[in-house]
């Protein structure tokens, strides 16, 4: 943890809850293709499982990470942070 973050951590603003979105991939489909979806349909995202995922707050990328097994065993999913975007930390 950086000194700036530690020094400010007593600030009540640090208690605000922010939703974090993990973006694994994205695909653009026609409405016709989308209307064909049913249970067990597989939607290809065009990315490899080894590629980093993006972590976003309010639509802004704040970090990249990799999917990994969570603390609750092989059926739980988590993200290991690989890189924090320094330019987004204080903007």
TrEMBL record:
One Pfam family linked to the record: FliMN_C
SUPFAM superfamilies: Surface presentation of antigens (SPOA) (SSF101801)
Keyword match Thylakoid: no
Keyword terms of this UniProt record: Cell projection, Cilium, Flagellum
Keyword Nuclease: no
Listed GO CC annotations: bacterial-type flagellum basal body
One Gene Ontology biological process: chemotaxis
Top-rank taxon, per record: Bacteria
InterPro entries, sorted: FliN-like_C (IPR001543), FliN_T3SS_HrcQb (IPR001172), SpoA-like_sf (IPR036429)
The Flagellar motor switch protein FliN-like C-terminal domain, residue ranges: 13-84
GO MF annotation, one: cytoskeletal motor activity
Family label: Belongs to the FliN/MopA/SpaO family.
Protein name, UniProt field: FliM/FliN family flagellar motor switch protein
Source organism: Parvularcula marina
């Amino acid at each position: 943890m950086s000194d700036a973050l530690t020094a400010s951590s007593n600030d009540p603003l640090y208690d605000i809850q922010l939703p974090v979105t993990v973006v694994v991939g994205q695909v653009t489909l026609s409405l016709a293709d989308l209307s064909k979806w049913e249970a067990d349909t597989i939607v290809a995202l065009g990315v490899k499982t080894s590629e980093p995922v993006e972590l976003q707050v309010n639509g802004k990328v704040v970090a990249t990470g990799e999917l990994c097994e969570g603390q609750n065993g092989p059926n739980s999913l988590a993200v290991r942070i690989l890189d924090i975007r320094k330019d987004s930390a204080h903007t």
